[in-house]
Amino acid sequence: MQQLQIPVESRTLSNGLRVVISPDRTAPVVTVGVYYNIGFRLEPRGRSGFAHLFEHMMFQGSENAGKMVHIRLVNSSGGVLNGSTRYDVTNYFESVPSNALDRMLWLEADRMRSLRVDDENLRNQRDVVKEEVRMNVFNQPYGGFPWLDLPPIANRNWANAHNFYGDFQDLDAATLADVQSFFRTYYTPRNAVLLLVGDVQPAEGFALAEEHFSSIPAGAPPPTADVSEPAQTEERRGEVPEKLGTLPAMAIGYHVPPRRSPDWYALALADRALHEGRAGRLYRSLVLQRQNALEIAGGIHYPMGDVFDYNGPMQMVTRILYKPEYSPDQMIAAFDEVLAEVRDRPLPSPELEQIKVKLRSDYYSTLEGGLGSHVPRFGLMHYLACFTLFDGDPGLVNTALDGFLRVTPEEVHAAAGRVLRTENRSIVLRLPAAKPASQAAKN
Amino acid sequence: MPTETEAPLSPLTPPLAPESRVVWPERTHARLKCGIPVRLVEHHTIPKFSLQFFVRSGAAMEFASDRGVAGLTSTLLRTGTRARDEHGIDDELRRMGADLSAGAGADASWIVASGLSEFSAELAGLVADLARNPAFPAPQFERERRHSLEAVRLNRTSPAFLVNERFRSVLFGDHPYAVVAPTESQVEALTRDLILDFHRTHYSPANAFLLAVGDFSPPRLVEQLERAFEGWSGSEVEQPEETPLPSHFGRHVALVHTPGSVQTQIALGNIAITRDHPDWLRLTLANAIYGGAFHSRLVANIREQKGYTYSPRSGLTALRRHGYFGVHAAVRNDVVAATLAEIFYELDRVRALPVREDELSDAQAYLSGVFSLGIATLDGLAGQLATLYLYELPEDYLETYRERIRAFTLDDVLAAARAHFDSANAQIILAGDADKMEAQARLFGDVQVFDAQGKLLSSD
To answer: What is the pLDDT, as a whole number, of residue B158?
Structure first.
């Protein structure tokens, strides 16, 4: 079995900014990322959706790169750029031919040092974000399902249970003062990591990082926040009307054990046995054999991420679109039967071995691949950032799989028994508002 | 002068360093004894490889009576062969750490697999078996037909699907490119015999090509492919007669009425050109300046200045025989007319006046840089090569792309925009609530209103 060894070098600047470099000379391009250790979990109460709205503001102008200039300088250097807001991080990244590295670091440092935005920018981006939400949620069949629907039902801590995209009245209430305060609190060097992945010599990369970032004041440590979720003791259920789609849908979520605990590794393999592809037990049983479902997908942190890129309470989620002639209870019963197979006896060894091979193969592709086809090594950058911010060790990128590959069938069985319990789950139904005549239950 | 929304560049902006040399992927060409041409490209970043099998027949080769047959045929390939059953195939793929998908577009059908290099011979054997010996088991046929039926029903609830479907239908008229998905009754009419026929006719070594990208030794992989496809035979596929395209005079609006929608999806554009047209790269450049990049006129205007939309974009779509130009945006209902006005304003401006020198050089740098990014990953490279061979572009297309883009002048951009952005005859498609925006739509042309099922509700 070939092992992949990714070169990783890291340093911390005097202001606390961590810098991680992974050189790769395959192509003369480099992907630059800045990850801030703040996601939508920690946005202020009464300001749902703010972390994401703020992400938009980071493209509106900084001291030396005013409105549209950041975007122009990336595009006209031959590059692409984007950002995203997740549970526990917000990221900003650009991929460019490597001759633009200096310029990209200057741009990222400029907006880390000095966000320069006004009310007009805020109004403009609030409008843009509302169209984003309309497009992805309100005007989209199963929009936001289940990433917006399940958390309010499954969780009790506001950090984990609120509307992450934002209620429109909260977006309207956001002020420029909120923007500046959020920036000062969380967008500090000590709360961030800078990643350089691709065609860069580490010595040169560290020197450029020092030159552009080291004079930015460290800032105060961000306040510690409690994102813990009380243990769940009984099943929770909810329902959200589906206004557009023709098929009934449901999502089922189980709270998973803490990251990097023995049960977490083992449960992740149970998750793959259930959800990974057409050979996954849920797809095989409910879509291919019994044929009561039409689409099934899921996993830990589905559909927003995977096992590596979150840091706090999380769920293993299954999303099902099923045929209108079945009732929700029939679907839950069918789901339970498949789950029982994994919970009540150890997985056959050959199945677990196949799952491990596929896990390793998928991991390689994630590290090498891009976001779409234009952000090469996005996956590597993303994992390096998460391992740095959450675990303090970007080198985990070379050993992160080990804990999963050691798991035995008995450990999967034991973890599944502890986690996949009815009282640890939540179910949200998303049923078409106008039910077709064939909706009547079969039995 | 920068756009109205744009601040000036700071003198502190670091200059670009000298460019590094781009190393172009070396291609190995081979032809299997059964006649299939093979292109192989080594890319040794991870111990994996991607194998793509294509036949040059997709939905455009269907008979009008059998819409959906190409797609369903490809879906069914993995559900069983003479020697393998469905679950065995899925287990085998997982054992090799492999993913496999099969599908059909307008011009081609494909099986794309990627897996760990150590299993290259087995994966090649599996792909060949699916291509050559599918059994199309009757129960799987019934299951997948039902799935297709639910999928086409569900499609009609998606504004993005509805606007695109109507756009293609208006642009292409009676041409097969007009159809993006079969109707419910067309799916219901499909039979297993039609699937068997489509496979027999179109899945033939004389109509196929193979593409491999990744971590392997080309001579060894060719040997493995040779064994996998040994003894396969089949005849050439007859090309159907070309259906003429409709002519479009003046702007017309087709409105797909989706009551209660909180947003309107806009698509507008015209028939343009294919990749082998001499103007293709000039027009690509004009499009990048107009609306094909984040830093383009359209995005600066209707997103960054006016906040009408989240994701405006213009683009060129090139199929094998025809291509088209499209502008897309999803906007709130009360700014439909305002958005259309800006879309046409920017379109007319890029046709009327030369762009600025710096806009030209920015867009040239953008396209040549993005081209390098696009071939830096295994999947990106495989995608570029698939386009190259599917559309039979010149063999030096990759190597010459950047220098050709950089050689164009302001006059080239102006000429391409004038020739192929047909503002006066653009066809406008809107999907949304007619009660909220039909009056706005009528400012831009006569309006035909359809429901989501495609039924004509009213016509000016």
So the answer is: 97
Chain A to chain B Cβ contacts (< 8 Å): 259
Do residues B163 and B267 touch, judged by C-beta distance below 8 A?
Answer: yes
Whole-number Å distance between alpha carbons of A41 and A162: 8
Beta-sheet strand order (sheet of A9-12): A9-12, A18-23, A192-198, A29-36, A90-97, A80-85
> What CA–CA distance (Å, rounded) separates B146 from B187?
9
How far, in Å, CA of B83 to CA of A115, rounded? 63
Q: Is A400 on the interface with B (CB under 8 A)?
A: no
Percentages helix, strand, coil for chain B (3-state, rounded to 5) are: 45, 20, 35
Residue B30 Cα to chain centre, angstroms: 27
Helices B69-76 and B192-202: angle between axes, nearest 10 degrees = 90
d(CA A186, CA A39): 10
> B3 falls in which pLDDT band (50, 70, 90)?
low
Please judge whether A68 and B7 are an interchain contact, meaning their C-beta atoms are less than 8 angstroms apart: yes
- Residue B52 forms beta bridges with which residues? B112, B211
Closest by Cα among A181, A175, A160, A152 to A226:
A160
pLDDT tier at A440 (50, 70, 90 boundaries)? very low
Beta strands in B43-91 (DSSP E): 48-55
d(CA A124, CA B4): 14
A416: tokens are 């599944």
CA B304, chain centre distance (Å): 27
Q: Which domains does chain A have, with CATH numbers?
A: 9-213 (3.30.830.10), 236-439 (3.30.830.10)
Burial of B278 (0-12, 13-18, 19+ CB in 10 A): exposed
Strands of the sheet containing B48-55, edge to edge, are B27-31, B37-42, B208-214, B48-55, B109-116, B99-104
CA A409 to chain centre: 28
Give the list of residues 6+ apart from residue B206 with CB closer than 8 angstroms, or none: B35, B234, B235, B236, B237
Q: B252-459 domain in CATH 3.30.830.10?
A: yes
The two domains B27-229 and B252-459 share their CATH topology (first three levels equal): yes
Cis bond upstream, residue B134 (ω within 30): no
**Across B93-108, average pLDDT:** 98
Number of neighbouring beta carbons within 10 Å of residue B237: 16
CA distance B288 to B361: 11
**Pairwise CA distance, residues B122 & B167, whole Å:** 43
Cα B123 → chain centroid = 26
Angle at A23 between CA B373 and CA A215, to 5 degrees: 100
ipTM above 0.90, yes or no: yes
Classified by CATH at the fold level, domain B27-229 comes out as Cytochrome Bc1 Complex; Chain A, domain 1 (3.30.830)
| Mean predicted confidence (pLDDT) in B91-106 | 98
Half-sphere exposure of A246 (CA within 13 A, CB side): 18
Min Cα–Cα distance to chain A from B266, Å = 12
Chain B partners within 8 Å of A61 (Cβ): 7
Q: Do B10 and A64 touch (CB under 8 A)?
A: yes
A303–B contact, CB cutoff 8 A: no
pLDDT at site B4: 56
At residue A443, the pLDDT reads: 33
pLDDT digits (tens, 9 = 90+) for A4-41: 899 999 999 999 999 999 999 999 999 999 999 999 99
Q: How many whole angstroms separate alpha carbon B49 and alpha carbon B224?
A: 14
Residue-level length of chain A: 443
In sequence order, the 6+-apart residues with CB closer than 8 A to the CB of A393 are A387
> How far apart are the C-alpha atoms of B158 and A145, rounded to whole Å?
15
* Domain extents in chain B: 27-229, 252-459
| Nearest by CB: A284 against B17, B87, B143 | B87
